[in-house]
Amino acid sequence: MKTIAAIRKIRLSLNGLVLFEELLQDTRIQLLCGLFEELSKKETDFEKIYISYHRFYKSMIGINWVEYLVQKLFDTDNAFVALASGSDNEKVNSDMMETAARDLQIIQTLAEIKPGDILSLATALFQDQLPKADKEIFTGLLWPENWPVWRWDLPDGVNDQTEVNDLSAAQWLRAIKSDFLKKFILQTRWELNVPILVDYYRKVGYGIFGTYAAFKIKESCKKLEGVENPDPIRVNNLICQEREQALVLHNTESFLQGFPANNIILYGNRGTGKSSLVKALLNEYVNKGLRIVQLKKNQIGLFPELVRDLARIPLKFIVFIDDLSFNDVEEDYKHLKSLLEGGVEARPQNVLVYATSNRRHLVKESFVDRRSDDVHAQDNMEEKLSLADRFGITVTFLSPDQETYLKIVEGLAAQNKIRIERDELRQRALKWVMMHNGRSGRTARQFIDHLTGELAVSKN
């Protein structure tokens, strides 16, 4: 059982946090500290104790208190975290590591506060000091022993290794965070958890980068925001794409291993799996430190600031620009050329650009350009046509012929466990093509989705 003195000690010690002092700005921690203050006042205000307790309880519905505090440590973004997560360990001196350990020791005392500790203190106060006039009020559900309790329980254990083969990026991120969280909590002395924190920051990331695997830029504030449920597609879902995949996967693996790698332009007809392949990379390599940031064409001007922010994060980022092309009056292509190659500021080694396009020449070229009376018309035309050359690798995606299309359909049917005669499957797939968008991987996927739903309905 905690005493009033112990509560005051915890509350005072929190003001001694140094590296993790931003935790004191957290709403739930402030509510609990407010409850501590009410419990330790010389003149007890029983109504305020009741109200403060229930305010904190309401903020904790569905949340585990111990896990919540550790999650706050994982999600924080401060100078210590940025240094500790980098590859240069010498930047974090022994004094900083000792200060971090001291902070964790303080935070552990807060984590060890149980609902029973608070209720025992409140019950003792109410029994000893409650005025006679108030005894008729604080009965039944208002008596401290009958107040609701928030969750406070320790995890059962830690997985030896999180399996990644069948997990999407979002699933892997949740699983690995859960493993780190359990390992942290089960350590009896949290001051010894500094290496676990550092390992977490390096493998998973910190701040928003430890919470999400895919990102986009929010239009209203031009800041990164996480994508809650990125596409779970895997490379093996993309059938008859072996040549294209080999080029992209080899470059990506070289990038993730810290070797030289190229920006890539994926060019081809619509529905051939260009965007799907880029999105599948996230689910294949999230455990290797890969993250994806989707950038719209009209946001290209934000690229320099974006990469400066990403450069300090100990992860690898693919900036993904989908359906890239420019008309003849747009000037953003000039900015993109400079950013890809030739700018004063070098692209950081942890950032690549992968773009998709339905057009071989990314900038529209008209016959007017060719007939222009501009003395330097040829130069202007060459400038427009050279944008694709700034990407080190061009991967061409061809529309499938009929047999390839049918192989894609058969492969997807097998993956979706569709049991239907091969001849019937092929005939229906060809009929679907005639009524819809022509042969492509996308058309095959749409046919399989339709067939899956149709068979499920008929079965029921």
Give an account of the 3D structure.
- This protein is an alpha/beta fold and 460 residues long.
- It folds into 3 domains: 4-210, no CATH class; 225-397, Rossmann fold; 402-459.
- It has helices at residues 4-14, 27-40, 46-59, 65-75, 79-84, 94-111, 115-129, 132-135, 169-186, 194-203, 242-256, 274-285, 303-311, 332-340, 367-371, 377-385, 402-415, 422-435, 441-459, and strands spanning 214-218, 223-226, 264-268, 290-294, 316-321, 351-357, 393-397.
- It has a 7-stranded mixed beta sheet.
- Helix 4 crosses helix 9 (169-186).
Keywords:
7-stranded mixed β-sheet, 3 domains, Rossmann fold, 460 residues, 49% helix, alpha/beta, 19 helices
Short description:
The protein is an alpha/beta fold. It has helices at 4-14, 27-40, 46-59, 65-75, 79-84, 94-111, 115-129, 132-135, 169-186, 194-203, 242-256, 274-285, 303-311, 332-340, 367-371, 377-385, 402-415, 422-435, 441-459, and strands spanning 214-218, 223-226, 264-268, 290-294, 316-321, 351-357, 393-397.
